[in-house]
Design goal:
about 350 residues; seven-stranded mixed beta sheet; alpha+beta; eight-stranded mixed beta sheet
Length: about 350
């Protein structure tokens, strides 16, 4: 049987976390705190689907979902927007099928343009999931048990770039809400330069609030001026992964190799937290960000995003849709204050 929870009670939340801890294939993105962050920060309507054999039986599977609605792009049911691996997690094929069936019904009943499931571990065969998106693998680095061992494992070119950055005396600070303004000032400029609408500041505040022991910000300053920053998520489930879902560096700081100094500090931080792997996030193969991540030794791991098209195209809200090319160029020329004003209402409709 499938139970649907628009909001989790404390007892159900604890039960879900216990299920995640004992599920080897669970990902940090499955943690129920993300539902709270998406609701508070982006105004989405998240929910948790739970499969049990009876109302009081143990959990057999979960599927976190969120409705993403936009007048510009349409209506989507996604597991989960902003995140890479929050799809079906179940103890067997029967539970997987029941969860997907329930999600499919919700997508149809809610007149979604499409349903998108972003699984943590491989594709799942289902008659409704007729399309697959696998163009952007995750880049993951296995971490040694000490920062010294990591430094020794890096290629000489990477070490030289880090040493070059040290000539400019970069200072990297780690913190939470007290660094949010500095981080967001860099993030907003970087997103404008990329031609991408910026997430609202409150979204990052919501993430920090939802994951008080596992989310933090890093800000790199040169001469006390913020020029690079990142959001770090330390695995709240298995405590083995540190990931960076959002990072930014001002183009004006490129000659200083500030981004190299930032990631050097992030990797050291991950090792200090006991992580055994560092998730750089998804990138298009052979893109600039892809090459940046692989130079650290990160290895591509395929993603497993499956879609059920219904009323619209699965390309409707994708930034690489050719019809948005001219709009992206226009966005890059806008003043940053304008993008901070009109960007959040746009980006919340992009899954």
């Amino acid at each position: 049987m499938i139970q649907i929870y628009p909001r989790l009670t404390p007892s159900i939340r604890d039960e879900v976390v216990t299920f995640l801890v004992h599920a080897d294939r669970s990902a940090p993105e499955h943690h129920p705190a993300w539902l709270e962050a998406l609701r508070a920060g982006l105004g989405h309507q998240p929910q948790m689907l739970i499969d049990r054999s009876s109302p009081s039986a143990d959990i057999r599977g979960i599927l976190p979902l969120a409705w993403v609605r936009s007048r510009l792009f349409g209506r989507f049911l996604v597991s989960l927007p902003y995140l890479n691996r929050a799809g079906v997690l179940a103890d067997g094929p029967d539970s997987e099928q029941r969860l997907i069936d329930a999600a499919s019904r919700q997508a149809r009943d809610g007149r979604a343009d499409y349903l998108e499931l972003r699984h943590a571990d491989g594709l799942i065969e289902h008659q409704d999931l007729t399309q697959t998106r696998d163009d952007k693998p995750r880049l993951v680095l296995s971490l040694p048990d000490s920062d010294e061992a990591l430094w020794s494992s890096l290629k000489s070119k990477v070490r030289n770039q880090v040493r070059k950055s040290e000539r400019f005396d970069p200072l990297v600070r780690f913190g939470r809400a007290e660094l949010l303004d500095a981080f967001y000032s860099v993030f907003a400029v970087t997103m404008r330069d990329l031609g991408t609408p910026v997430y609202p500041r409150r979204f990052f505040h919501g993430i920090l609030d939802a994951l008080p022991e596992h989310a933090e910000l890093a800000v790199l300053t040169l001469d006390q001026v913020p020029v690079a920053g990142a959001l770090l998520i330390h695995d709240p489930v298995h405590h083995r992964t540190t990931q960076v879902p959002s990072a930014a560096c001002l183009r004006t700081a490129n000659p200083t190799n500030a981004n190299m100094a930032l990631y050097r500090a992030l990797l050291k931080r991950a090792i200090g937290r006991g992580a055994t792997e560092f998730d750089f996030g998804r990138s298009t193969i052979d893109s600039g960000t892809y090459r940046f991540k692989t130079q650290w030794g990160a290895v591509a791991q395929p993603t497993a995003w499956q879609q059920m098209p219904l009323l619209g195209s699965t390309m409707a809200a994708r930034p690489d849709n050719p019809k948005y090319r001219s709009r992206i160029e226009t966005w890059r020329r806008l003043p940053v204050w304008v993008t901070r004003l009109i960007g959040p209402p746009i980006v919340r409709g992009i899954p």
